[in-house]
Design brief:
This is Regulatory protein. By secondary structure, the protein is α+β, with helices and mostly antiparallel strands. It has three helices and five strands; from the N terminus they run βααββαββ.
């Protein structure tokens, strides 16, 4: 739908708010209300990706969100070139017990499509995903 816009984002909370504003501006403006459960999933994915960038990626280097015909694409840039081990096997099942690492990656894989991890030429990496958004059911 639109070109990516870099939001003024410096925390998981501001990233969630920005992602929600993209849904409202693009989906609602197009005359179709987004399914609230999908917006909640979007906010969970955004929180996980931004928090991971801050905690494990050397800090947040950038955040982008833009609407597509299928949902919202998110791109989170950080300063680390290390690719998360869990991202190397996107087919891994959700863990049944907690083994010291988080549940973030399995949730991201479950709630998104088109997960990509790319090294940036200027250093660091970008993790991008598509979070599907469906129209709300008519009342």
């Amino acid at each position: 739908m639109t070109t990516p816009v870099r939001g003024s984002v410096d925390s998981a909370a501001s990233a969630r708010a920005y992602a929600r504003s993209v849904v409202r501006a693009e989906w609602d403006a197009a005359g179709r209300e987004a399914r609230e459960q999908d917006v909640i999933d979007l906010q969970l994915v955004v929180s996980e990706l931004v928090t991971n960038a801050i905690r494990h990626g050397g800090g947040l280097a950038g955040f982008e969100a833009w609407a597509t015909s299928d949902g919202v694409r998110i791109a989170v840039h950080d300063h680390s070139e290390v690719i998360p081990e869990a991202a190397l096997d996107a087919t891994a099942p959700l863990p049944v017990t907690h083994r010291g690492s988080g549940y973030g990656w399995p949730l991201i894989v479950r709630l998104t499509r088109e997960v990509a991890v790319d090294r940036r030429p200027e250093g660091g990496k970008t993790i991008s995903v598509l979070v599907p958004i469906r129209p709300a059911e008519p009342a």
